[in-house]
Amino acid sequence: xxxxxxxxxxxxxxxxxxxxxxxxxxxxxxxxxxxxxxxxxxxxxxxxxxxxxxxxxxxxxxxxxxxxxxxxxxxxxxxxxxxxxxxxxxxxxxxxxxxxxxxxxxxxxxxxxxxxxxxxxxxxxxxxxxxxxxxxxxxxxxxxxxxxxxxxxxxxxxxxxxxxxxxxxxxxxxxxxxxxxxxxxxxxxxxxxxxxxxxxxxxxxxxxxxxxxxxxxxxxxxxxxxxxxxxxxxxxxxxxxxxxxxxxxxxxxxxxxxxxxxxxxxxxxxxxxxxxxxxxxxxxxxxxxxxxxxxxxxxxxxxxxxxxxxxxxx
Length: 314
Description:
InterPro entries: LPG_synthase_C (IPR024320). The protein is of the alpha+beta class. The protein has helices at 17-25, 38-44, 82-94, 106-112, 137-142, 149-158, 172-176, 178-196, 200-215, 261-275, 289-296; strands at residues 10-12, 49-54, 57-63, 70-75, 98-104, 118-121, 132-136, 165-168, 221-228, 231-239, 246-254, 280-282, 302-304, 307-311. The chain is built from eleven helices and 14 strands. Strands 1-2-3-4-5-14-6 form a seven-stranded mixed beta sheet.
């Protein structure tokens, strides 16, 4: 991939996380906080992530995590860089690879529709098919009012029969339950692959990569397993930037047979984040309509539509 990019492009990996996070924080602010999330970009670009700075414009290129012989071009913060995006897409396509421009915010989408060689398309293999959901963590953690009645019942139901325990990446239990975590991830992937229309192996690899993220013991990442007795029933990975403000949900999966588990995990995240001084929580977009509808029950603070564009150079 590097040979297709302008001179001076840089490969980014987890050893660069601290520097990369500072770099992202200095970019023009985007309404999509994932455009400033080192954890999200490194996780999405786990097969290869590159920073491109060329002629005063900045962008990222990732080897596509779910499609063979494909690449993603992603915006850097709120940098509107159509010339660089076009250059990158053309260069990558010339090598016979499929390439798309992803996570384009509404203000940029309107402008991109006027640019030759780009055509808007429905995202089919990544996590913004349905809108990005931003939660108010204080409201979600307090669960007050009739609008949260059903949500409260599910949270209480989850912990009623067998107490749910939680271990983060600092706990030996996080490492000791490796086999149980893998089993839970595989069970979840088998259950949802047909619903999401995603390949099971990609669902497994995505969440397993996020679980391994916790093993890196990186400051600013909070990875947790939820367990009851001998069973692991959930996993979540959240980026908690040092400058506060908005946290980013990187990955989440759970035992779908455990009633209220999803609600309980969101509530626990919200409570911890609120107590730590965070106001908002970006739980990213949804791959399915049913997941988007479920997240609407969390009473979002905001939803953001993101767009994918195909490169269709003649």
